[in-house]
Design brief:
The chain is built from 13 helices and seven strands. By secondary structure, it is of the alpha/beta class. The chain has a seven-stranded mixed beta sheet with strand order 3-2-1-4-5-7-6, with helices on both faces. The two termini are 40 Å apart. The model is unreliable at 1-16 and 24-29 (pLDDT under 50).
């Protein structure tokens, strides 16, 4: 625009196509809201209502599934946890592709953009350098500490995510429930904050694990016991009935995952609404924890 005189600028601004250009520029000047989701459902389960609220307001929202890679068919570990989950999911020969499709449907319904990192796989598929499965049972997945020989834990925190540099706010899992993948992504988010000090880093309580008070307290203890201490400020985001209904609809897109937590779609909706009411003692909300810069 600098090459135009005053009248030229006015003429440009009033052109219909120019209004569309300015609208797009305005959205991106505000910078995106970036959600880091360990798996193909975590961000929607925990943040679906706010994602819808932001997208409906015209804000750019991007959800990145971090452990989004797909193992080669002949390299899927034959372990108890893989057999158990694949049988429960009922997704056929390509569970990751099915889950990716569910995720895209869920995020499209909320108005968010879906992306995934193909380098890292869900922990149930990861192996050591010698080819041994790192996580073979449910107990190994929900661990107090991530195994030192897990390559994702070692290398992911060193990865620079270009999207983070263009984000206004970054949302990451708090680690409620102690799932190893959630812990790894949480730790990566802290590194991204160091790389991009201007972003606001916020942590979400992983639903439905967040319904366990002890699990929530344990996740909080990670931050308070960290050296130096990481201080969090609680923030409750009030959402509308439309936002809540959109969240429930989006969660229902993850058909393979419903049985992991609920007996039916109806039971999921009842539990989800109850949890959102309990978080505020009345109105529908989602709760987040902002990392203090001081």
């Amino acid at each position: 625009l600098s090459c135009l005189d005053h009248q030229g600028i006015i003429d440009f601004i009033i052109r219909p196509d120019a209004l569309r250009v300015l609208e797009i520029l305005n959205r991106w000047v505000l910078r995106m809201y970036l959600f880091l989701s360990p798996h193909y459902d975590d961000a929607v389960l925990s943040c679906g209502a706010m994602i819808h609220q932001l997208a409906t307001a015209g804000k750019p929202v991007v959800v990145v599934t971090v452990m989004g890679g797909k193992p080669e068919a002949d390299r899927v570990p034959d372990t108890p946890i893989v057999r158990e989950l694949h049988a429960r999911w009922k997704t056929g020969d390509d569970p990751v592709a099915a889950r990716m499709s569910e995720d895209e449907a869920a995020l499209n319904s909320l108005g968010a953009q879906a992306q995934h990192l193909a380098v890292w796989m869900d922990c149930i598929y990861r192996t050591s350098r010698s080819g041994q499965a790192l996580y073979t049972t449910r107990e190994s997945i929900f661990a107090a500490e991530v195994p030192a020989d897990d390559p994702a834990a070692k290398w992911l925190p060193t990865v620079i995510l270009p999207l983070a540099a263009t984000a206004r706010d970054v949302y990451a899992p708090m680690g409620v429930g102690s799932h190893v993948d959630h812990q790894i992504v949480r730790n990566w988010a802290l590194e991204l904050k160091k790389q991009n000090p201007s972003i606001a880093l916020k942590f979400y309580e992983e639903y439905p694990y967040s319904q366990d008070k002890a699990a929530l307290e344990k996740a909080s203890a990670f931050f308070s016991s960290h050296k130096p201490e990481l201080r969090l400020q609680a923030e409750t985001v009030t959402v509308s009935e439309a936002d809540t209904a959109a969240k429930v609809k989006a969660i229902a897109c993850y058909q393979s995952q419903i049985s992991s937590f609920w007996d039916s779609i109806e039971a999921m909706e009842t539990a989800t609404r109850k949890a959102m009411l309990q978080a505020n003692g009345g109105g529908l909300v989602e709760r987040y924890w902002t990392l203090s810069d001081h």
